[in-house]
Design brief:
binds adenosine-5'-triphosphate; OB fold (Dihydrolipoamide Acetyltransferase, E2P); five-stranded antiparallel sheet; alpha+beta; 2 domains; 26% helix; 344 residues; single chain; Rossmann fold; globular
Length: 344
């Protein structure tokens, strides 16, 4: 990352009483990034966001903004936009009044406010709804108002805490598209908390993965998915096949397969199901297995396999023209490219 990060956490820790909610978090966020904070429930994502926002003080470490120490600054001094899980709109104010609110606080002129509100309403696709109160809007529309309100005064940084968690799947997809578009158009830095792996992979320029209050890995979506730093990240980010290494036999029990070069230091080898294929007997890098179960999923079938060592594997079979998927009970070989496997 060239230059000074816009936001930087330096060894940040947070304790609630004796409980360590966050420990040793060091993370730089560049201007214009869309970074997701991803992790299971209770991993510390929201806590980290509230520390960046300035709603809670850090217990240890420092927070920097464009090279300046902002650790003790109030939320107001930081001036970041914030969109919460709920919509947190003012129920007695109309759409236009909600969006105008932060601009009034900033004492902008009436004409300026009217212009900006019209611009924001159009940007989030709510033209015609300006005079409605929040309760007359759908969940997705309310979240759009919350986004428009947070972006109205052009904050340099927008913090979003699971903004779409209350929306159904379709609406969630639409709002994700909307957010990507807004990010592209505005170039504002987005820091986005989610526990949804697919959402993080689809939206972010980088993902920071949290577990038990510690940062596990930071990287682009394909880095963290294809090259997870540890077993937690590998398992958290999607389906994964994990095979034990039998060091005495020099490989995986019962077969001859190439192993990733760093395998010697680890106990397991991991391969994503989409990188596994059914193989011919003469394929070099292969593992014998038996089909235990087959689930028809339309365009694909999911095969559950068992190796000779009794370990489970999963892979997807394309139900196109050509070979039908193998029946349960079939003995076959699976193969993968060594470069697609990693040691964990
Ligand atoms: P979720 O996805 O469920 O929101 P999260 O990763 O955002 O989870 P946090 O809300 O940051 O998790 O919470 C991290 C841990 O800190 C949890 O164990 C939580 O109970 C604890 N915690 C958070 N806020 C407080 C508080 N004000 N007082 C005491 N403990 C807290």
């Amino acid at each position: 990352m060239p230059g000074t990060p816009q936001i930087e956490a330096r060894s940040v820790g947070k304790k609630f009483g004796k409980f360590h909610a966050l420990q040793g978090i060091s993370l730089g966020i560049s201007e214009g990034e869309f970074i997701s904070l991803l992790g299971p429930s209770g991993s510390g994502k929201t806590t980290f966001l509230t520390l960046i926002a300035g709603y809670e003080p850090v217990t240890t470490g420092k927070l920097m903004l464009e090279g300046q120490d902002m650790t003790t600054w109030s939320a107001n001094q930081r001036g970041f936009g914030m969109v919460f899980q709920g919509y947190a709109l003012f129920p007695h104010l109309t759409v236009a009044e909600n969006i105008a609110f932060p601009l009034k606080v900033q004492k902008r002129s009436k004409a300026q406010i009217a212009d900006r509100v019209a611009q924001m309403v159009a940007m989030v696709g709510l033209a015609g709804h300006e005079d409605k109160k929040p309760k007359a809007l759908s969940g997705g529309q309310q979240q759009r108002v919350a986004l428009a309100r947070a972006l109205a005064y052009e904050p340099k940084v927008l913090l979003l805490d699971e903004p779409f968690s209350a929306l159904d799947k379709n609406l969630r997809g639409q709002m994700q598209e909307e957010l990507r578009r807004l990010h592209r158009e505005l170039g504002t830095t987005f820091v986005f908390v989610t526990h949804d792996q697919e959402e993080a992979l689809a939206l972010s320029s980088r993902i920071a993965i949290f577990n038990h209050g510690e940062l596990q890995q930071v990287g682009t979506p394909d880095e963290v998915y294809e090259r997870p730093a540890n077993r937690f990240t590998a398992e958290f980010l999607g389906d994964i096949n994990i095979l034990s290494l039998d060091q005495q036999a020099g490989g995986i029990a019962g077969t001859a397969v190439d192993l990733p070069t760093n395998a010697a230091a680890f106990r397991h080898v991991a391969i994503r199901p989409e990188h596994m294929r059914l193989a011919a007997a003469q394929d070099g890098n292969r593992l014998p297995a038996r089909v235990r179960d087959r689930v028809y999923l339309g365009s694909k079938s999911r095969l559950l396999l068992e190796t000779r060592a009794g370990e489970e594997l999963m892979l997807y079979f394309d139900n196109g023209p050509g070979m039908p998927p193998p029946d349960p009970g079939s003995e076959l070989f699976v193969a993968w490219d060594t470069s697609d496997s990693f040691a964990v």
